[in-house]
Amino acid sequence: MLNLDRQNTYRARYQATHPGWQTSGQVYESFVRQYTVGWHTSRYAAHLNATLRCRWLDVGCGRGGIIELLGGQVTLCVGADLDLASLCEHRAPHTRRVAAPMDALPFADESFDLVTCSWVMEHLADPRHAFAQIARVLAPGGHWIFLTPNARNPLTFANRLMRGPLQAWLVRRLYARAESDTFPVRYRANTPARIEQLARQVGLRPVQIQLVGDPTYLAFNDPLFALSSLIERITPPSFRVHIVGDYTK
Question: Which domain holds residue 217?
Answer without folding.
Answer: 23-156+182-248
